[in-house]
Amino acid sequence: MKAFTYQRARSVDEAVEAASAHPGSKFIAGGTNLLDLMKLQIETPSHLIDVNHLGLDRIEPRAEGGLKIGALVRNTDLAADRRVRRDYAVLSRALLAGASGQLRNKATTAGNLLQRTRCPYFYDTNLPCNKRRPGSGCAAIDGYSRSLAIMGVSDACIATHPSDMAIALRTLDAVVEVAGPGGAARRIPIAEFHRLPGDTPEIETNLNADEIITGVVLPKPIGGRHIYRKVRDRASYAFASVSVAAVFAADGSRRFAFGGLAHKPWRVEAAEAEPTPDAIAEAVLAGARTTEHNDYKRPLTHRTLKAVFREAEVQA
Amino acid sequence: MTVAMTDAAALPEALNQVQQQLPVGLTVNGQRYELHLDPRVTLLDALREHLQLTGSKKGCDHGQCGACTVIVEGRRINSCLTLGVMHDGEKITTIEGLGGPDNLHPMQAAFVKHDGYQCGYCTPGQICSAVAMLGELKSGIPSHASTDLANPRFSEAEVKERMSGNLCRCGAYSNIMDAIAEVAEGEGLLG
After folding, report:
1. Number of other residues whose CB lies within 10 A of the CB of residue B63
2. CATH classification at residue B41
């Protein structure tokens, strides 16, 4: 690791001020992704601001319905929360499909959203990567791209976002709450939180450098059948080739978000009223740009969605 | 062959910086330690290099193998993926704290009985992980293998899923499974 200085922040304001005062600093919470990247010198912050003690580790009911999840709630605790298991099972299921027991015990809600891609070329510091070194080129597009994105890609980047949790949050229309300098606060719908790569793949979210995530809001429960289906190379502890977060709501409406396909959770609302899984998948995959290695993700998306429909019938 | 003398001025700036050394108090296996750590020191390196508690192992150093698993404030974590300075004031249990040759923890005894290892390198992490994993199951925390999210029950599928963060290069998995099942039965988890 490159040398850095360290401070423990005691309040959100103190953390935000510290970030403004130290350009090149990073917040650290669970650290499970950041420290991995720092060991490889892919991330080289000059200053770390430990945000573990900001008191943002609770899940609270909201007066208008729904839940407010503190930014520092650990993935294990979020997945195990009784209300989440009962009313937002797709979120529990998605969290439990990711990482290992040890990692979920450390990883936080905000950190999960901000984790970096696992594109092998992002990790290989000997090769060009526009995300790691802007302007250096993309080794993935003509490389071994089996795990990489087919939707919303650009000539600069075909990385995927690795989070399972974010895919479930997308189906639930969650909202990310953010604090900035001077007590400023704003809310970013999950659909607008992550960005497509375009020609600036190094900018992954619409969070500003001096802002910090304080929580994630889940709207009122919509009931129905909740399913998270993840297809991967190993039965456990692997990132998705394709995943589907699905809610078959009590009113007959359906929601589907897809992981493993894009630089952000991929959801096409207009496709959700299509009559069959194949028709939905076809509409979701409109505009797909595949390589010889990842073209399998198109039929896999169709099949995974069909399996989700079958599972929903069994639950009904 | 000429060996160039290293000119301190030519070293990278970072090496010449006087590193921040931070006071950290850790309670490890019931004993209190006061340390001064460079912020780069991982909890794993603090345990192994500063406290000479070398039971916890460095396998991949990237959170992929689980050999470094320790129990912090009652929870199993990868000690390689966290900084020592982040754990000031916390309680940590390592394999040395679970039990020793004369007072084996039931999980250690079960691993010996069932031959839950070959080379033994992953074993401290496997055992710390297994002990905390049964605690998670007991407190009702679900897993990917839980058919009923509301009520997870002990099963072989549950153990395999919950232990997937601990790799065994020798492939002693079936014996590890037997060892864990025996302890789970002793704890009344087989219902």
Report:
1. 26
2. 3.10.20.30
A248/A181 Cα distance (integer angstroms): 40
Which CATH number does the domain housing residue B136 bear? 1.10.150.120
Exposed e or buried b per residue across A161-177, where buried means at least 16 C-beta atoms within 10 angstroms of its C-beta? bbbbbbbbbbbbbbbbb
Please give the pLDDT value at position B1: 39
Give pLDDT tens digits for A14-33: 999 999 999 999 999 999 99
Q: Closest approach of chain A CAs to the CA of B82, in angstroms? A: 6
- In chain B, whose CA is at the least distance from the CA of A94? B144
Taking only the tens place, the pLDDT of each residue in A204-260 is 999 998 999 999 999 999 999 999 999 999 999 999 999 999 999 988 999 999 999
Q: Which residue has the tokens 């069994």?
A: A314
Cβ under 8 Å to A: B residues 145-164: 146, 149-150, 160-164
CB contact under 8 A, A31 and B22: no
Last residue of a domain, which of B76, B98, B120? B98
B51, B114: one domain:
no
Per CB distance under 8 Å, which residues of A are interface residues toward B?
1-6, 8, 28, 30-32, 35-36, 39, 48, 50, 52, 76, 79-80, 85-86, 89, 92-93, 96-97, 99-103, 105-106, 234-237
pTM of the predicted structure, to 2 decimals: 0.96
**What is the value of ipTM here, to two decimals?**
0.97
Contact state of A39 with B61 under an 8 Å Cβ cutoff: yes
Do B76 and B129 contact (CB within 8 A), yes or no? Answer: yes
Whether residues B93 and B120 fall in one domain:
no
Read off the DSSP letter of residue A81.
-
